Amino acid sequence: MDVYDEVDRRETDAVWLATQNHSTLVTETTVVPFLPVNPEYSSTRNQGRQKLARFNAHEFATLVIDILSDAKRRQQGNSVIAPKDNVELVLKSISNQHSTDSQDNDQPDYDSVASDEETDLENVPPNSNREKSLDLSDGTFTVQEFLEVKNALTASEAKIQQLMKVNSNLSDELRIMQKKGSKVEKQTSVPESDYDNTLHDVELEETSSSRKGRQRSMPWHGEGSIPEMDDPDVDASSTLPSTEDVIRKTEQITKNIQELLRAAQENKHDSYIPCSERIHIAVTEMAALFPKKPKSDMVRTSLRLLTSSAYRLQTECKKTLPLETSPSTDIQLVTQQVIQCAYDIAKAAKQLVTITTKENTN
């Protein structure tokens, strides 16, 4: 940039002298011997800029040609050494076109140097810069692959933002339903039923605890399956857990899903498995609140979606393990599947809260 300013100064001086009437006296105030001081630059740089004026035509032209040759070498990526004979030819052409009576005749050197640069740029194919920008290290990365990865990343980020918004809305709805459920229970409760409700809550808590311990020890039989009781004689039950218990477990599931989505957004793939395990435990505890054979088809469908999605979530998260990951494994696709499973779990939990609130209100 400093050399360019010096070239511009010399060219300006040449134009100025060419337009002056030489019959009149040109005072010293019309001649700028060097670049002016720039207050934005340091004193060392200003001194270096002003010392460029001390170069004569031969020295300054040699400096400019060396700079352009080095720029050409850096651009083309190969060694381009300007022979000394080329410099002499440029200087000879300059001396033939302009007189060398004084140092003020050094200014036209820039025209020849600039034309040399333009000639070099014309020799470069128009697509070379574009191809070089795409030739990253090994040269195997194409524009199409870059656009595909970029589009996939954009879609994943949009999906994450959507799920975060769904979780936020779900949390708000849970709080509203919790307030409505508490209000309805206070309005419909009578002194005679308090004792019965207390006994029912105690029995339900004990049943849930035993059911929870048994379900944790039972293996998953496959995708879409719900662990059933060993006793086939158990009849279908219409008893549903309290709204507060369902909301409390749903909030725990929602919190764990938010941690998983945050890990996906930050590309922390090693956090997938711990998050999926916490979600699996929360889902198991929530499923244990309901009867093993619910009478309502909607409850059975929601529970099946809840548990199967938790199972699929664990399966997808295990694909991020070093032993499970193969060269052909697409981590981006795995992340999308994990996000979809989390979305299905949140959807099923929301359905169970809605059903429980509606049934308990009636």
Automatic annotation (TrEMBL):
Gene3D superfamilies: 1.20.5.170, Nucleotidyltransferases domain 2 (1.20.120.330). InterPro entries: GIT-like (IPR047161), GIT1/2_CC (IPR032352), GIT1_C (IPR022018), GIT_SHD (IPR013724). It comes from the Eukaryota. Residues 48-78 form the GIT Spa2 homology (SHD) domain. It comes from Engystomops pustulosus (Tungara frog). Residues 103-121 have a biased composition (Acidic residues). GO terms for molecular function: GTPase activator activity; small GTPase binding; zinc ion binding. One of its GO terms (cellular component) is presynapse. Keywords: ANK repeat, Coiled coil, GTPase activation, Metal-binding, Repeat, Zinc, Zinc-finger. Pfam families: GIT1_C, GIT_CC, GIT_SHD. This is GIT Spa2 homology (SHD) domain-containing protein. Residues 96-136, 179-246 are annotated as: Disordered. One of its GO terms (biological process) is brain development. SMART domains: GIT.
